[in-house]
């Protein structure tokens, strides 16, 4: 599956499918390794997509005059 063209939801759905297949333990070793490799790539893809989404998030806050003001999202630790 081409991981660059996946959206987050499709990547997660495929990753969940891979996890279910591996948890059943019925795949031969070579297939299990291929599934694991694909899953690892999907995890990277999902992390990249989440990182990009986080950069786009803005928090609306009230400005000094009470009107909404867009400010960059800063995660609170």
General description of the model:
This protein is an alpha+beta fold and 77 residues long. It has a single domain (3-61), classed as Helix Hairpins, CATH 1.10.287. The protein contains two helices and two strands; from the N terminus they run H-H-E-E. A hairpin with a 5-residue loop joins strand 1 and strand 2. Helix 1 packs antiparallel against helix 2 (29-56). The chain is rod-shaped. The mean pLDDT is 84.
| Most strands sheet | 2 strands, antiparallel
Q: CATH fold name, please?
A: Helix Hairpins
Residues in helix, %: 55-70%
Distance between the termini: 36 Å
**What is the subunit arrangement here?**
single chain
Instruction: Count structural domains.
Output: 1
Radius of gyration: 19 Å
Offer a concise description of the structure:
This protein has 77 residues and is of the alpha+beta class. The protein has 2 helices and 2 strands, in the order H-H-E-E.
Write the layout of secondary structure elements.
Layout: H1 8-24, H2 29-56, E1 58-62, E2 68-72
Antiparallel strand pairs: 1-2
Key terms:
2 helices; 13% strand; 77 residues; Helix Hairpins; alpha+beta; two-stranded antiparallel ribbon
């Amino acid at each position: 599956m081409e991981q660059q063209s996946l959206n987050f939801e499709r990547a997660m759905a495929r990753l969940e499918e891979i996890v279910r297949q591996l948890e059943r333990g019925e795949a031969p070793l070579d297939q299990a390794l291929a599934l694991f490799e694909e899953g690892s790539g999907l995890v990277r893809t999902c992390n990249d997509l989440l990182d990009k989404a986080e950069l786009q998030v803005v928090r609306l806050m009230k400005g000094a005059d009470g009107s909404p003001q867009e400010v960059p999202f800063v995660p609170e630790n």
